[in-house]
């Protein structure tokens, strides 16, 4: 009986999956985060954006992470405020961010800062970083740990600015408000 329990305990211990880097803290500013899709070799962030403050994620690496050399990264960024996205910026303060050309269009990388104007000209309310849906021909981003040691932390900042309405959108909004005011004035006048 005792050997059976020992065998089951050791099997359970070895069956535990290795973890990817550990999320130590997140500054969400009222936004929602789901990390349940992360695996031992993948950081996966599912973000629902209510307000457009900068989101910060602090991750810690251990010896196993350093030995692996890198971790894959993908994210779904969803605007639920109704404003849509104007631009996206991503900054990594340590390590190396590798962005495959097949996973992001209209982006510029300057040092550790990535910015994208992918959203200009269209009302976009959901954006995919990397390959969160495991599609053929699209790759995840990679966060490398060069120059880092076990116990080090790195910060990933994601900034999203809301879309700026076009003049025609403002004109339509003002015309609609004018019609509401006229309708209310007619009802009051009766």
Q: Your description of this structure?
A:
The protein is α+β, with helices and mostly antiparallel strands and 190 residues long. Helix content is 23%, strand content 37%. It is built from three helices and twelve strands; from the N terminus they run αββββαββββββββα. A hairpin with a 2-residue loop joins strand 8 and strand 9. The chain is elongated and about 80 Å long.
List keywords for this structure.
37% strand; 190 residues; single chain; elongated; alpha+beta
In short:
The protein is of the alpha+beta class and 190 residues long. 23% of the residues lie in helices and 37% in strands.
What order do the helices and strands come in, and which of them pair?
Layout: H1 2-15, E1 22-27, E2 32-34, E3 42-49, E4 55-60, H2 63-68, E5 70-79, E6 85-92, E7 96-98, E8 107-110, E9 113-116, E10 126-129, E11 141-144, E12 153-162, H3 167-189
Parallel strand pairs: 3-5
Antiparallel strand pairs: 1-4, 2-3, 4-12, 5-10, 5-11, 6-9, 6-12, 7-11, 8-9
Dominant shape: elongated
Widest sheet: strand ordering:
1-4-12-6-9-8
Count of helices?
3
Strand content: 35-45%
The H/E string reads: HEEEEHEEEEEEEEH
Helix content: 10-25%
Number of strands: 12
Largest sheet composition: 6 strands, antiparallel
Distance between the termini: 89 Å
| Average pLDDT reading | 78
């Amino acid at each position: 009986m005792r050997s059976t329990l020992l065998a089951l305990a050791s099997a359970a211990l070895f069956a535990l999956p290795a973890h990817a880097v550990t999320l130590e803290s997140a500054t969400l500013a009222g936004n929602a985060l789901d990390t349940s899709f992360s695996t031992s070799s993948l950081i996966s962030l599912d973000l629902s954006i209510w307000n457009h403050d900068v989101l910060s994620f602090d991750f810690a690496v251990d010896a196993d992470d350093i030995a692996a050399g890198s971790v894959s990264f993908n994210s779904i960024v969803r605007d639920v405020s109704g404003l849509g996205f104007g631009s996206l910026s991503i900054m990594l303060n340590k390590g190396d961010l590798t962005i495959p050309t097949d996973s992001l269009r209209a982006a510029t990388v300057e040092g550790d800062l990535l910015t994208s104007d992918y959203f200009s000209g269209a009302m976009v309310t959901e954006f995919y970083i990397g390959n969160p849906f495991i599609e053929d021909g699209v790759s995840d981003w990679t966060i490398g740990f060069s120059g880092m040691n076990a116990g080090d932390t790195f910060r990933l900042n994601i900034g999203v600015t809301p879309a700026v309405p076009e003049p025609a959108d403002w004109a339509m909004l003002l015309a609609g408000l004018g019609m509401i005011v006229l309708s209310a004035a007619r009802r009051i006048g009766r």
